[in-house]
Amino acid sequence: MNLEIYNSILHGSLRPQSGQTPVGYSEISHLLDKCPTTLSEIENRLTQVLGNNLPVNFNTDTPANITQYLNNQDYTAIVIDYFPPEIMLSFPDTQIPIHRFYHFLITAESKRIKLRLLQSVETLKDDICAKQEIKDTLSQLARHAKTIQEQAQPNEIFACLLTQIVKLYFEITLIFDVLLSGQDYISFTDFYSVRLNRQVDEVALSAYSKALHVHQAQRLYNDFDNAAVINLLSQLYSDLAKLPTDNILIAVICALENAIFLQSANIAFPIFAEIVNPDFPKSVLKTRKQILNYQLNTLSNSREALIEIENMTENLPDFPLASPEIAVLLTSSITRQLQYWLAEQKEIYKTIIPVAMTDKNFIQTINAGIVTTGKDSVIQANNSNVIGGQNNTVSLSDDMRKAIEEIIPQITAIANVLSDEQEEITAELARINTQLNRSHPKANIMASAFQTIHSVLCSVTGNVVTPFVMDKIQTIIKIFG
Question: How far apart are CA 152 and CA 236, in angstroms?
């Protein structure tokens, strides 16, 4: 491939003149704001921007398929990553006209070269010819990097070109790695020491490491190997520790963790574009919570539930150790969210009173602690109900208040796994909380709210409500009358 624009910047008519604004800059300034994405659009834009400064004919680079008349047309197709390789290196400021002009040329030409190579591989349909085309391009880029490094008077435009050449060189090695071997290009650290005569800096090395591992993650997802994925996750965690705001890294890590979860649960993998969509893990998580919650609600008491929660937690997949700072970023990891949810369920079940609320002694303790006030109120000392009087208020004993406050989070947890009923239950819980905050709660309002909740939960299919939760609600309703 002929790298005519880069050649011209280094040796020809586009070689920058110090401080000189490009000819006709005002007419082309609006074309420099954003680079197009398709090959034809990029080449048209470059032709417009270059004008008479460098007449170019990009079609001279179009290869021919020399194998089209042969019987065997087997070749290696290039799979485009969902997150294409992108090495995020820093470029000089591009505010002044001459810098804007050259920055556009340099970055647009880089995109054009990658797209042209992809087109060439598809057109040639021959691995040997395609590999040679890629190697020739890499050799030209390495020579240009050496030329810039040897410049007697380097400038910011050449510095921009050098950065882009390094970026492009190694993005090409990632895109076309299935056609290349380690002997076909220079390693990242060697490129700096051999071609640039300096040691690679930590920022550039981190950027390359991230791009490499994101690319490897996508290839591994399509050809899944659990042991290799576990090993790669450790490297991705290290990348994220250096780049904690990188959303692509976070998405890729969660995708791999979710793939491990799906494999452990015998669930088929979706395509990569779907597994990195935030809606996918949310959907799986909701379904999994409903399944686990149903299993817990079939148990007869909280002690059994706590044992089952431990078993559920232990059965979740294991990942390499990640720091708390890393783990908190992985909000789309199904396994990690289930761990958090199970921990919450554990705390909820710990608060459940081990003696059933229908136990006579417990009811007597609550009844004995109720004092009624208000017109038409009637109460008896033992095994009693609050009777009559629309505006009755009650002074709740500590035991009764505690019983109500403990059952509220249990009802809330059940409501959170429901869909159609959640809003109605939440509204009734709000009414109960309002009364609890009063010095003299109204008995009829609290009774009505608990009655509504009881009726709604009775209508729920799938047995998602434990019997002892329903017993507690019924007992509270009975006491309020």
Answer: 40
CA 407 – CA 402 distance, rounded (Å): 9
How big is the chain by its Cα radius of gyration, in Å? 34
User: Beta partners for 378?
Assistant: 387
Q: What is the pLDDT of residue 465?
A: 65
What gap in Å lies between CA 188 and CA 212, rounded to an integer? Answer: 11
Phi, psi of 387 (to 5 degrees): -125, 140
Which of 173-187, 376-390, 403-417 tops mean pLDDT? Answer: 173-187
Quick check: 287 and 262 in contact, CB under 8 A? Answer: no
| CB-count burial class (<10 Å; 0-12, 13-18, 19+) for 474 | middle
pLDDT value at 70 more than 90: no
Helices 4-11 and 97-124 meet at what angle, rounded to 10? Answer: 140
- Cβ count near 53 (within 10 Å): 16
Structure tokens at 132: 């040679």
Contact 106, 161 (CB under 8 A): yes
pLDDT per residue over 305-361, tens digit each? 899 999 999 999 999 999 999 999 999 999 999 999 999 888 877 765 443 343 433
**The pair of three-digit structure tokens given for residue 97, joined into one six-digit string:** 């006209």
**40 is written with which tokens?**
């034809």
Residue with tokens 């509270």: 476
Residues in Cβ contact with 87 at an 8 Å cutoff, skipping those fewer than 6 apart: 166, 167, 170, 171, 207, 208, 211
Task: Find the largest Cα–Cα distance for the chain.
Answer: 105
Tokens for 169? 């060189």
DSSP string, 190-202: HIIIIISSSPPPH
pLDDT digits (tens, 9 = 90+) for 94-144: 678 888 899 999 999 999 999 999 999 999 889 999 999 999 999 999 999
Q: When comparing pLDDT for 394 and 267, which is higher?
A: 267
Q: Is the distance from CB of 78 to CB of 121 less than 8 angstroms?
A: yes
Rounded Cα gap, residues 468 and 353, in angstroms: 10
CA distance 241 to 250: 11
User: Mean of the per-residue pLDDT values for the chain?
Assistant: 84
Q: What are the residues whose beta carbons fall under 8 Å from the beta carbon of 279, sequence distance 6 or more?
A: none
Evaluate whether 28 touches 166 at the Cβ level (below 8 Å): no
> How many Å apart are CA 171 and CA 190, to the nearest integer?
16
pLDDT at 371: 46
Q: How far apart are CA 473 and CA 476, in angstroms?
A: 5
CA distance 416 to 344: 12
Q: Are 151 and 92 in contact (CB under 8 A)?
A: no
What is the tens place of the pLDDT at every residue in 397-449?
Answer: 777 888 888 889 888 888 888 777 888 899 889 989 998 888 888 877 888 78
Which of helix, strand or coil describes residue 396?
coil
